[in-house]
Amino acid sequence: MLFGSAARGEMTKASDLDLALVYPDDQALRLGRKAIYCRPPCDSWPTDFLFSTQKAFRARVAAGGLYELIAREALELGNSAVA
Predict the structure, then answer these.
(1) Are the CB atoms for 49 and 36 separated by under 8 Å?
(2) Which of 50, 35, 38 is nearest to 2 (CA)?
(3) Where are the beta strands (DSSP E) in 1-83?
């Protein structure tokens, strides 16, 4: 899920890309993280990744805070499917 200033269309030259990557289970999460961090970057734009399983993401959304904001922003902006 894209979130933050880029998702809101408020990105500047000083902004980074914020991506929440949600995987079905721990194995998929490990493979996804490895795929991202074990290859050279294809772009010089700074990017922040938040990795989570679906179960953990749902629990964090329910607890409020950053993950709730991410889910709400994704739903409101229609930039992603929230499981």
Answers:
(1) yes
(2) 50
(3) 2-3, 17-23, 47-53
Angstrom distance (rounded) from CA 56 to CA 73? 18
Query: pLDDT (tens digit, 9 = 90+) per residue, 6-17?
Result: 888 899 989 999
Q: What DSSP state is assigned to residue 24? A: S
In 3-state terms, what secondary structure has residue 19? strand
Side-chain half-sphere exposure of 52, counting CA atoms within 13 A: 19
The model's pLDDT over 10-63, given as tens digits with 9 standing for 90+, comes to 999 899 999 999 999 999 999 999 998 887 666 677 889 999 999 999 999 999
pTM for the predicted model, two decimal places: 0.79
54 touches 23 (CB < 8 A): yes
